[in-house]
Amino acid sequence: MKFNISILFSVFRLLLFSTAVHAQTAQIISDKVVNTNNELNEIVIKKQTQLVKYSSNGTIEVNVSNTLLSTSSSVNELLSRVPNVIVAEGQISVLGKGEAIIYLNGILINYERFAAIPVTQISKIEVISNPSSKYDAEGKAVINIITKKNSENGIKGTATQQITVSEFAGTSTNTLLDFNYTKGNFSFITNYGVQLGKGRELLYTTRTRPNPEEFMRSELTTDWKRQFNNYSNFGFGLQYTFSEKNYISLAYSGNIEDLGGVVESRNSIENNSGNSFYATDIDKNDVLLNQFVNLNYNAITDKQGSSLFIGSQYSNYNGTVRDFIDENGLVNEVNSQKYLKNNVGNSINIIATQIDYSKKIREDTRLETGAKYSYATIKSATDFLIATATDMNFEFDDELSSDFKYQERIGAAYFNYGSAIGKKFDFSVGVRGEWTKYNLYTNANGIQEFEKNYGNLFPNVLLNMNFSEDWKAHFSYVSRITRPRYQALNPYVIYQDPFTTIEGNPDLLPEKTHAFEIGTMYKKFDFKIGYTYKIDPISGAALRGNTPNSYILRSLNLDKGHTFFTSLSRSFNVKWWNSTNTVSMNLTKSVDDFYEFELGPVKPQIYLYSNNTFSIPNLFKLQLLAWYLGDRSYGLGSDNSRSTVTVGIERNFFKEALKLNFTANDIFHDFMVSGDYNVGQTQIYYHRTYTTNYFRLIATYNFGNSKKTNYKKAEIEQTENSRAR
After folding, report:
1. Measured distance CA(691)–CA(713) in Å, rounded
2. Phi–psi pair at 490, nearest 5 degrees
3. How confident is the model at residue 71 (pLDDT cuts 50, 70, 90)?
4. I need a surface site. Which of 472, 574, 600, 723 has the fewest CB within 10 A?
5. Structure letter (DSSP) for residue 546
6. Which residues, 6+ apart, have CB-to-CB distance to 690 below 8 Å?
7. What is the distance between the alpha carbons of residues 77 and 64, in angstroms, rounded to a whole number?
8. What is the β-pairing status of strands 98-104 and 91-94?
């Protein structure tokens, strides 16, 4: 920590020294102007852009550019800093709603595509808690990531270098390059980013069976010490604008995740037959290549502003795992050792095509309709080889090895009608129909092969009330579905030790949700209250395996779930201070009568969020972000509180061509996901620590000769974004 603190003070001294020099120089120049012209120039303080904009229908719009959010090294980290968004354990959720689906400029993308989105190109984030039928029914809420639009002729680019130092994980670097070129009707954009260095994640778990007849206590520590050999993202995009009313765009993007390092697992087991200890070291050699191609056409079809959108998307994921596992056991003072090889190859191909048409009938009336079709194929093969330390003769293991094939087709169509009732009321009503068919094959734990298809209708209603300029209100009902992730259906084995594996569940059912919300905006206050009912909610637990001490971490369906929530937000925006603040309360109850969860109390969870920016004219910008998520008891278990405090200081140089930012993230290292539950007569406690406590220095250089153009493309681009609201 001494090394990190010394870096902290050194950077602060550098920024403050440069600030003092700048201020002194400015004062000298100012004095000369006064002496020469007997005239004192007025200091002009520019009003800051508001971080969050609240909409009367419950949607919030979060600005990213020139805020603490833009210093994030990944989209995951960025979203964890957005109000009411919770990111943990591979899931992105909106408080009070549940897991969200992600859109990029109004087009649905997969969770795995996150790594291919450069943070430097993100302009703002829309958090849509009451999505209309225009959106896929997947997920309980929608997060729409909107990238920057270049409306300037010429060349424009940025080069960013990040250096992150963490006492917990080590040092990593992130290099980001963006380049834009626009001339007349033609635009070109490209980007490249690479992350190198180290990352870490630590999980401590205890499993206890207190029954004396089958007593067992396991203390397991798993330490992921990751080495980023090549974590890179890349892409380019072309756009040709035929006129102010239509354009076509083609984009290619991708990312490589070449992950090395080691996973150290230590499991101490005590039971009626004695004590045992297992040490497992996994040398990681995982490589994943993701690639995406988008072709889109946008057009304004009449003078009233009706629009047509046609888009297609191809996604390809190819991954390989070549892990070498060294396992040592000590059972009743007898040593044993064996080696395992885990060889995995998997591929995912997804093709999706959609068409959306929005007809503006009158100024206050619009009819929207569209259709979408997607086709996904998933193949995975896992080969486990086992050898003893004496002969090193690797043999194929049938129990741990498996093949998996999955095909899924989803067809969808929707309509949405919106209009006004008088001057104070407007509404929208819509329905989305989706038909799903899939085929699944696996030979894990015996051959399983089945085909299923089902159809669903998802109605939604939104009523807005504009009582006055200062007072607005809304009511909404939204129905949604959450289908299991492909990885959650795949029963292949992720090996931790002889008694701990992570496996998919091919029997998972989709989760259905019905959500109600009432909200009001009074002046600068935004208040919401709502209720969400879930059928077959998707959860997860450590379930007992086939042997007495073994446990399998697996996704599963609970019976139902209830969530009540309320939220109050207030933003301040003055010349030198921009502040966004939220306080929320959640009350969640999960119900299950199949997996033998032990029932417990239900207690509310408090959420506090504050994001503040202080601008000192001609000197620097100071940013402070803090949030707190309190304890929660949901009937089948409990989660412990976690929080984050982040401080950043930023300074521009050379007429804003160079920007330096220093950030201290999660200063007290309190972002730790932990909790406990009882299932199958086993008490389970878990505590997971991430690489969130770090110091980061960021240098961004802007270059180019771009100039403002009178050619208007903003209306067309806004139409594409509006199509996704």
Report:
1. 41
2. -80, 115
3. confident
4. 574
5. S
6. 201, 671, 672, 673
7. 12
8. antiparallel
Which one has a higher pLDDT value, 289 or 109? 289
Distances (CA, A) of 632 to 91, 600, 638: 17, 11, 5
Range scoring the smallest mean pLDDT among 311-315, 420-424, 456-460: 420-424
The string of pLDDT tens digits covering residues 685-713 is 999 999 999 999 999 998 887 665 433 33
Residues 24, 17: Cα–Cα separation, whole Å: 10
- Looking at residue 717, its amino acid is E
Distances (CA, A) of 313 to 144, 379, 513, 724: 17, 20, 27, 16
Contact of 640 with 610, CB cutoff 8 Å:
no
Residue type, 24: Q
User: What is the identity of the amino acid at 669?
Assistant: H
List 237's β-bridge partners, or say none.
189, 251
* Dihedral class, residue 549 (left if φ above 0, else alpha if ψ from -120 to 50, else beta): alpha
Do 678 and 637 meet the contact criterion of CB atoms below 8 Å apart? yes
Summarised one tens digit per residue, pLDDT across range 85-139 is 988 777 888 888 888 888 888 888 776 666 667 787 888 999 998 898 888 888 7
Give the whole-angstrom CA distance, residue 642 versus residue 672: 6
Q: In angstroms, rounded to a whole number, what is the distance separating the alpha carbons of residues 632 and 607?
A: 11
Of 411, 509, 516, the closest CA to residue 459 belongs to: 516
Say if residues 431 and 439 touch (Cβ distance below 8 Å).
Answer: no
Mean pLDDT score across all residues of the chain: 85
Phi, psi dihedral angles at 67 (to 5 degrees): -125, 175
Nearest Cα neighbor of 581 from 44, 114, 52, 20 is 52
- Tell how far CA 368 is from the center of its chain: 28
- By three-state DSSP, how is residue 350 classified? strand
- Residue 98 tokens read as 């549940």
DSSP codes, 125-159: EEEESS--TTS-SBSSEEEEEEE----EEEEEEEE
